[in-house]
Write a structure and sequence with these properties.
Order of helices and strands: HHEEEHHEHH
Distance between the termini: 36 Å
Shape: globular
Radius of gyration: 16 Å
Low-confidence stretches: 167-171
Strand content: 15-25%
Number of helices: 6
Length: 171
């Protein structure tokens, strides 16, 4: 059974196939970039989203993002932030490496249809960016919220700050 067949068995997944096979909407809020002004600046690294890369992801709390990077010749380097998350907030013992590994389960099982679609539709073009923040664990949720507000990644299911809410999120 292909990953698309797995999604077709779920009503939310079937709707995603119909709606997102041809386009994904991105929202970037340039007037709100100052809200994502994180000091000190985050130090981001990345690995390709492949099982053998797990050992290179640190075992500490931090922020992470899935980015689609298209390696087409003749174009400048570019990518799209598809998902932003955090690992290790509050009492959670999850690390960036744990979260990286969790997504390989999500790639095989459609328990979160949007994530399942993301991981399979762009297999081979996904990079896992991470910013280790072992000394800023208490700030993770606020840092994540600031980034979500500026980027509005299409696969992050989260309530955004009120200034970013679309009419569909209001009801």
């Amino acid at each position: 059974m292909t990953w698309r067949d797995k999604l077709r068995n779920d009503p939310a997944g079937a709707a995603m196939i119909d709606n997102q096979d041809y386009s994904v909407n991105f929202i970037v809020c340039p007037t709100q970039w100052h809200l994502a002004d994180i000091a000190p600046q985050l130090s981001w690294s990345s690995v390709r989203f492949e099982p053998e890369q797990k050992q290179h992801v640190p075992q500490v709390p931090g922020l992470y993002a899935f980015v689609v990077r298209m390696p087409y010749l003749g174009l400048p380097p570019h990518g799209w932030v598809m998902y932003i998350g955090q690992a290790g907030d509050g009492d959670s013992k999850k690390t960036l490496r744990d979260r990286f590994g969790d997504y390989f389960f999500d790639k095989e099982h459609a328990r979160r249809p949007k994530i399942f679609w993301l991981l399979n539709a762009w297999a081979g073009q996904l990079e896992f960016f991470y910013a280790p923040l072992p000394d800023r664990k208490s700030e993770l949720v606020n840092l994540e919220t600031n980034l979500l507000g500026a980027f509005r990644p299409p696969f992050t299911d989260r309530t955004y700050p009120a200034t970013y809410m679309s009419p569909s999120h209001a009801f």
